[in-house]
Amino acid sequence: MKKVIFIGQSGSGKTTLCQKLNEQSIRYRKTQAVEHYGTSIDTPGEYLENRRFYNALIMTAVDAEIIALVADPTSDYRAMPPGFGGIFGKKVIGIITKIHQVRPERIKEAERELTMAQASPIFQVDTPEGEGIEELEKYLREEAD
Q1: Alpha carbon distance 100, 123 (integer Å)
Q2: pLDDT per residue over 49-85, tens digit each?
Q3: CA 26, CA 7: separation in Å to the nearest integer?
Q4: DSSP alpha helices (H): ranges in 1-145?
Q5: Residues near 93 by Cβ (< 8 Å), separated by ≥ 6?
Q6: Cβ distance 121 to 144 under 8 Å?
Q7: Which one, 7, 22, 38, 53, has the greatest CB density within 10 A?
């Protein structure tokens, strides 16, 4: 699987997704620092929410082959600015988490946010249920070249 860095606001499901993709048991906790899960790099949400930490994201992303921007459709807060993916100079994909917790309109809003941030393709997942995970894994394994 390609080495991927997960970037998203606090509570968006990055840690759960990293644990699931690396076949670890899901433990809910707040990420305080950059953590590595096999081929996944998990970043604290504050790195996206505070522009002064963008340099830390850029430096951490050097080790990744793919940038995964994670959007939480359950949140009204939008931390991802338009064009954000362009600062990395690498393949940028989008992941919408928690798809079973919201109405379809909220998923569309998250999709617009990711599209404006220059993410493509965009995957929809429900991590604890495993929905959409197989498609994402396949992409990270085979199609990301």
Answers
A1: 14
A2: 999 999 999 999 998 999 999 999 999 998 999 999 9
A3: 18
A4: 14-21, 46-49, 54-61, 104-116, 133-138
A5: 66, 67, 68, 69, 119, 120, 121, 122, 123, 139, 144
A6: no
A7: 7
